[in-house]
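Run log // design_07
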């Protein structure tokens, strides 16, 4: 075991602060990573504050990790010391259920090991995330990152990037499709960039008028304020696909009405409370309401390679780790442009 510096939430109502954790010794299939950057996902906040229930304190959040390989085990084949690598939302899975065999480790039938607030496959050892100087991960769950891209901007691809790429691919986003993205935050801005890169006609649906110019710069063709009733009426029956990233309570029914016949709304945001849906809003127009969870390891590598090829990274605001609680408050207010990323050098010093 090696003790490393980290930042943890020790209680739901306490700020995130300095903490020490043990990282396991590097096993034969393990990669040790010196973390350079870690993105701040809204899920970190939901978990640190126990908004979904089930937080195991102390929790060290962070699942948008980019760093350099600092040590490898004897049997590691795909990574070497000095390589630039990434780690996303999970660090292991059973490896033998139908979903794992289909490269869908995020839906592992025996329970995968999430990067934080979860247990390793021994079902005992608690996982700690990327708000720390180092992490040790089994090689299969370590992604290759191109040095061509700005590495701080790559970090958010490991969650916000794959979480939006995967449903765009699964629901076959293509040239000419009319795609709406709801909520311009970390996930939302990646959805806009990715959908427009795939040739879709993208509409940003936001409650924040000050984000209009940014939405266009990110690649949105249209911007609509959801707070204005007449806008919502005008857009009825307009979209093939809606990517919904909203993190808080809102009315799904209002957005279902915007789908064309056979259209699909994908829920990515996880509001803490259950929200009602009226059956006629799905029945009339044969509309689908679906959800999607991050993406598998193979698809995450495909997304990273796609982003390197198309020169896509996240728009970030870099912070030192001692500003993490302010970053949480600003994220909650929707004041993030469009992902906070922690410069992990600030934790070493
Ligand atoms: P974020 O950066 O805070 O963005 C959320 C955006 O939603 C805000 O910027 C805001 O956009 C909009 N919004 C917030 N509150 C709202 C409200 N009350 N009504 C309407 N719109 C509201 O969060 P994020 O990191 O993108 O994460 C978004 C959600 O996805 C979180 O719940 C997170 O836990 C979840 N998530 C899910 C997965 C998955 O695998 N499915 C993966 C990662 C994260 P506007 O100002 O433009 O309206
Ligand atoms: Zn996330």
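design_07 sequence
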């Amino acid at each position: 075991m090696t003790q490393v510096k980290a930042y943890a939430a020790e209680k739901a109502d306490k700020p995130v602060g300095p903490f020490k954790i043990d990282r396991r010794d590097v096993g034969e299939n393990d990669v040790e990573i010196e973390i350079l950057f870690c993105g701040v996902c809204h899920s970190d906040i939901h978990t640190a504050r126990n908004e979904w229930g089930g937080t195991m304190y102390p929790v060290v959040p962070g699942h948008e990790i980019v760093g350099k390989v600092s040590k490898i085990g004897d049997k590691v084949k795909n990574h070497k010391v000095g390589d630039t690598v990434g780690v996303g939302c999970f660090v292991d899975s059973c490896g033998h259920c139908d979903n794992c065999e289909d490269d869908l480790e995020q839906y592992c039938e025996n329970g995968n090991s999430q990067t934080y607030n979860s247990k390793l496959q021994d079902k005992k050892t608690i996982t700690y995330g990327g708000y720390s100087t180092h992490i040790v991960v089994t090689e299969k769950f370590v992604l290759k990152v191109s040095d061509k891209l700005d590495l701080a901007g790559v970090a958010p691809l490991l969650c916000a990037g794959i979480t939006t790429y995967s449903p765009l691919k699964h629901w076959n986003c293509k040239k000419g499709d009319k795609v709406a993205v709801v909520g311009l935050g970390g996930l939302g801005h990646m959805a806009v960039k990715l959908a427009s890169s795939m040739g879709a006609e993208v509409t940003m649906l936001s409650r924040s008028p000050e984000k209009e110019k940014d939405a266009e710069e990110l690649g949105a063709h249209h911007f609509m304020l959801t707070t204005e009733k007449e806008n919502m009426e005008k857009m009825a029956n307009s979209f093939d696909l809606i990517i919904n990233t909203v993190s808080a309570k809102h009315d799904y029914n209002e957005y279902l009405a915007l789908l064309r016949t056979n259209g699909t709304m994908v829920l990515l945001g996880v509001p803490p409370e259950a929200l009602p849906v009226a059956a006629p809003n799905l029945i009339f127009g044969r509309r689908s309401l679906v959800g999607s969870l991050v993406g598998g390891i193979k698809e995450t590598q495909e997304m990273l390679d796609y982003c390197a090829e198309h020169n896509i990274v996240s728009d970030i605001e870099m912070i030192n780790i001692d500003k993490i609680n302010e970053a949480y408050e600003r994220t909650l207010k929707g004041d993030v442009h469009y992902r906070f990323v922690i410069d992990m050098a600030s934790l070493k010093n």
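The chain has twelve helices and 17 strands.
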